[in-house]
Amino acid sequence: MRTPFIAGNWKMYKTVAETVNFVKEFRALVKDIDGVDVVLAPPFTSVHAAVEAARNSNVAIAAQDMHWEAEGAFTGAISASMIREAGAEYVIIGHSERRTLFGETDATVNRKVGAALSAELVPIVCVGETLAEREANETFAVLDRQVQTGLEGLTPDQIAQIIVAYEPVWAIGTGRTATAGQAEEAHGHIRQQLQAGFSAEAAEACRLIYGGSVKPANTAELIAQPDVDGALVGGASLEIASFLEIVASTV
Ligand code: PEP
Prior knowledge:
By secondary structure, the chain is α/β, with parallel strands linked by helices. It has one domain (5-248): Alpha-Beta Barrel (TIM Barrel), CATH 3.20.20. 46% of the residues lie in helices and 15% in strands. The protein starts with a strand and ends with a helix. Bound molecules: phosphoenolpyruvate (PEP).
């Protein structure tokens, strides 16, 4: 039985003060909600403050990206060990905004995933097709390439620990959510790929979460699908009430 996993990706929203206020209020509201892993991913500047505000609660903190090198002349970049030292437990890797706006590739995703695991961060690895790729019937081919290259070299034990987020690009920030059937079809396909490439046990244990205009009104139907283990939530994670409703609808 896989524990549901709900993560909020705040993108470039919220100051340190706003983060601390959110986490302090939110942790009290979810303190009695068991049986779901809840994660917030603030901007880098707020990671440490978020960790402190969430200490001894059932809210964990993620970073939104990282560099694969441990240190060096990489102006503006942050390493996995820096994120870990700041207290985060997770890191989002390969978000479609990183791929389209910042040149992230499956190869850089792969290097980052390896570096995250070495630093004892759990990667939340994002994959997903564009609208043009879906319309050209290339969804499965795109997912296969992203999963195979992005996760190349991982052991079955590592696959069992990581989170894979299926985020169709056409559904991110557009208000257009994949139907539960579309999400299940893609998640089922990814799980088959993990089984073929790693092991049946690893594929069974790996949590596959859906992202793309998740809202309180559509969460329950999405995560009721057998291969949908949770959600990566953008816009609806910025408000306490909507993110709380999403978390509560998983249990
Ligand atoms: C995201 O940023 O990963 C995302 C899914 O955003 P939204 O929920 O706003 O579509």
